[in-house]
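agent> Task received from the user: take the single chain below, predict its 3D structure, and emit structure tokens. No templates, no multimer pairing.
agent> Plan: (1) validate residues, (2) run structure prediction, (3) serialize to tokens, (4) report one or two observations.
agent> Step 1 OK, no nonstandard residues flagged.
tool_call: predict_structure(input=
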Amino acid sequence: MHTPLSAQMIDETEPRKGRVVAVVTTYNRLEQLQTTLAQLEAVSPALLSNIIVVDNLSTDGTRDWLAREKTRMGARLHVITPDHNLGGAGGFEIGMRHARRELDPDWCVLMDDDARPDPDALAQFHRRDHSGWDVIAAAVFYPNRQICEMNRPSQNPFKHPRLFLRTLLGHGRDGYHISRGAYADEEIVPLDITSFVGFFVSRAAMDRVGEPDGALFIYGDDVLYALSLRKAGMRIGFDPRVTFTHDCTTYSNEKRRVFRPLWKVYYTYRNGLMMYREAAGLLFVALLPLLMVKWLLAARRYGADRRDYLRLLRMALRDGVLRRTSTSHDAVLEAAGPPHLPHAKAPHASIPEAKIAAETRRGA
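)
tool_result: status=success, residues=364
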């Protein structure tokens, strides 16, 4: 079992930002969660007042372990235990809602169960001058201290003509993502898009926009939430001095990637269409045919699963264009074929207010 980091790593910096609450979502990654919770517990309560963990119906012993940790840590730890898997998006939605209703935070900081603040990250967050910023995005690294590409923030190229041109001219991700040099700088860089790893969102921003859309289940919820914040006039800044580590192997720059398990195709493409529509505005009409051709051609990579891939793609295109999130996760799993059939009840499009309230009361 992992234990809290040594006391000398705790920083007693003055809590200039007020009450900060961490929200972590988890599903069947107990060892990663143990490391993350130990890292969070080691932070002085003055800098991180509470920790919320949303366990999405894990089956690997996570729930029992969290119950023991709750007894040991007391009121600082809040555990929310939904009766079905809400996905990362649903987990962040109910976790943030619980924080706002029960803990009155000045800021919430969001992270996956395999991501965690570096020992000085919360102290740096409190020390740094974030005047005029409503959201702060941390600099995220792999454990080997290479920049974590899946968490490299960006500006919206459709709103910045120069960046749009750079992207079209072949710069790819470097065309609109912040430069790698920004990670070694002191300056806070304005953003439009960032991820839910080291995502510090102020109470003012939460009160203006609310929580992320839990109906998205997984993928793109962070991008769409960031875009909604920007649309509401909130300012997002990348602070390279606030650092996180993401111990993940999910992302690769491999261009011929294949989604496994196959049901992830649906959420990637459906939510991707919703992201493109929000980011591109009227240009989405021209972009849609290009995306359809690209994704249809990708079917060649799936071999014997090609038919199931195309079925999921059709569903994703339909629901993405219609901005429909009412297709149940069970239906997605069924469309992915027999090997992917569900083992537990899965979420539907929305999370009723009464149900959220009941879940948070039970888990706190």
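agent> Step 4: summary for the user.
The first helix runs from residue 30 to 41.
agent> Done.
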